[in-house]
Amino acid sequence: MASTSTSPPEAAPSTFSPSQPPSNSSSSSSSSSSSPSSQPQTPPHSQQQPPRPIPRFLENDPARTGYDPQVKWWINLFKIYTHQITPEGVEHYREDRYKANEARDCARCEADRDYLFAYSPVIRFLRDKVAALNGELDKNNVVCRRCPARVAEDGTVVRQSGGFSPEHGILICANEMRDRGHLEDTLAHEMVHAWDHLRWKVDWQGGKGLRHAACTEIRASMLSGECRWVRESWTRGNWTLTQQFQDCVRKRAIQSVMARPTCKDDVQATKVVNEVWDSCFSDKRPFEEIYR
């Protein structure tokens, strides 16, 4: 999932239900306690970190980027191919094309979402496990929207492929979905977050520390299929044969923790992921094994 997969969706219209998870007797059969080792308690004397300053995002300036939104799109595309537009301008061009194709992208996303709820083994399994905890995920609270990307002053592009909010449900960023397989990985990632929330009431905002966030990000990247070898090698170009899966899970968990406003930097994100790694990486609930 993209690096900010746990960012709360802004446009999801309905409520991700239940008020309280059921007792241990009705939870996952692989669970034996209500407070698993994968959700470590926050030290009582830990202090909340002040939030990072909000980065300044760049607006398009044709004189600087070479991209002029007033001309035909195919002219700008030709200028991209001939290197007349800067990398920043390419991102602004991409965003304008996403806006123009928003209705098409959302319609395709919704059709793929409905197909996965009907036929995907992993999505149907996770939906049943969420339902066992008195939750409900369907087309009413799994929504497809266009998610704008922004270019920071340092050239970093801030984008996401989805998000989960306990109050709203799951957001799928329709414009970022390459195909149905990508949507399946993204939806599975967010559904693991939903299951974790119902099972353990995760501290999403990091007000008591970032260990909960780190743990659920490790589990979501591990169980969703987004770090399987084929995805890593063919889509992302990472051909490492040893520890590739573990490296992918760790890297994506660190990226997601860094997106939390209470995380200072990559050093803190790496530290907290390493602190919970052993217990969270070994916890495969609600699955029995890693199947994807």
UniProtKB/TrEMBL annotation:
Assigned GO CC terms: mitochondrial inner membrane
Biased composition annotated in UniProt, kind: Low complexity: 1-49
EC identifiers of the protein: 3.4.24.-
Keywords: Hydrolase, Membrane, Metal-binding, Metalloprotease, Mitochondrion, Mitochondrion inner membrane, Protease
Alphabetical list of InterPro entries matching this protein: Peptidase_M76_ATP23 (IPR019165)
Residue ranges, annotated region (Disordered): 1-62
Main location: mitochondrion
Localization annotation: Mitochondrion inner membrane
Alphabetical list of Pfam families matching this protein: Peptidase_M76
A GO term for molecular function: metalloendopeptidase activity
Principal EC category: hydrolase
Listed GO biological process terms: mitochondrial protein processing; mitochondrial proton-transporting ATP synthase complex assembly
Topology within the bilayer: Peripheral membrane protein
Summary of the function given for this chain in its UniProt record: Has a dual role in the assembly of mitochondrial ATPase. Acts as a protease that removes N-terminal residues of mitochondrial ATPase CF(0) subunit 6 at the intermembrane space side. Also involved in the correct assembly of the membrane-embedded ATPase CF(0) particle, probably mediating association of subunit 6 with the subunit 9 ring.
Family: Belongs to the peptidase M76 family.
PANTHER family: MITOCHONDRIAL INNER MEMBRANE PROTEASE (PTHR21711), MITOCHONDRIAL INNER MEMBRANE PROTEASE ATP23 HOMOLOG (PTHR21711:SF0)
Protein's UniProt name: Mitochondrial inner membrane protease ATP23
